[in-house]
Design a protein that fits this description.
- It is a single chain.
- By secondary structure, this protein is α/β, with parallel strands linked by helices.
- It has 2 domains: 4-114 and 185-250, Alpha/Beta hydrolase fold, catalytic domain (Rossmann fold, 3-Layer(aba) Sandwich), CATH 3.40.50; 119-175, no CATH class.
- The protein has helices spanning 30-36, 61-72, 85-96, 119-127, 136-144, 150-157, 173-178, 180-184, 213-219, 235-238, 240-250; strands at residues 4-7, 16-19, 42-45, 78-83, 101-107, 160-161, 168-169, 197-202, 223-228.
- It has a 7-stranded mixed beta sheet, sandwiched between helices. Strands 6-7 form a two-stranded antiparallel sheet.
- The chain is globular, with a radius of gyration of 18 Å.
- It starts with a strand and ends in a 10-residue tail after the last helix.
């Protein structure tokens, strides 16, 4: 069972499930989840091989969607927001178990295989021995030679647990490396999710292209598309208020019936 953090209390609104991306964790989404908790319960899991969730020998989308289905069944049905790898896992959950998903937001990812790889980031993390790190600043300096972008370093270092005995990465780096082709790929599933769906992209990101739209509409016939100005792939970090406002608008209760 996935380790989760829950915010807010049960209300008439469906609970919201937020699914993080590769190298992320539930804690990365804490600020947004706390703000959204005024609308109802928000549940944020650590995906397998991430954060405090159990380690497993596989990281395929079937694996991740199965874990999420087991979690959502405890609530009956949930609205779902997934970012990047978490967006692909959320898509597969909606396609495999549409009964468990009310409304779906897919943040800056398409149902497609990508050519990039995150193996250099894994190699950089594996080259850093947590037991020999004296502080987070020390770790940052060690990563700088192979990960020059300070924002990416800061993101990766959120998974470095220096308080553990011994210090450790909260990531199963060997499994993530082994299954990187599956993570950057897409399993080409069958079926459709006919519920309300929003593909929300960063205007500065190239992850979701016009060429992806036919595949998206084939799987998600109600799909709508929106972009957040000034945001890249990490749109929730680049433009947090605009991202939050879009989520609130999409997941707001439907207008009352006119009377039948």
């Amino acid at each position: 069972m996935l380790t989760t953090i829950a915010y807010g209390i049960t209300t008439a609104q469906p609970p919201l499930l937020i699914v993080h991306g590769l190298f992320g964790s539930a804690r990365n989404w804490g600020a947004l989840a706390r703000r959204l908790a005024d609308r109802g319960q928000v549940v944020v899991p650590d995906l397998r091989n991430h954060g405090e969730s159990p380690w497993h020998p596989g990281q395929t989308y079937a694996d991740m969607a199965g874990d999420l289905a087991e979690l959502v069944q405890r609530y009956g049905q949930m609205d779902v927001l997934g970012h990047s790898m978490g967006g692909k896992a959320a898509m597969l959950l909606a396609l495999a178990r549409p009964d468990l998903v009310g409304r779906l937001i897919v943040a800056d990812i398409a149902p497609a295989a990508y050519s990039h790889s995150h193996l250099p980031h894994i190699a950089a993390m594996k080259a850093l021995d947590p037991a020999k790190v004296t502080s987070r600043a020390h770790a940052d300096r060690q990563l700088a030679a192979s990960v020059p972008d300070p924002a990416i370093r800061a993101f990766l270092l959120q998974s470095l647990d220096l308080k553990s005995d011994p210090p450790r990465w909260r990531l199963n780096l060997d499994v993530l490396a082994n299954d990187m082709p599956a993570i950057t790929g897409w399993p080409d599933p069958e079926g459709q999710f006919a519920g309300p769906t929003l593909f929300l992209s960063g205007a500065l990101s190239d992850y979701v292209q016009p060429s992806h739209r036919p595949a998206i509409k084939a799987l998600f016939p109600q799909a709508r598309f929106a972009k957040i100005t000034g945001a890249g792939h990490w749109l929730h970090a680049d433009q947090p208020r605009a991202f939050e406002a879009t989520i609130r608008a999409f997941f707001s209760p439907p207008p009352p019936s006119s009377g039948q």
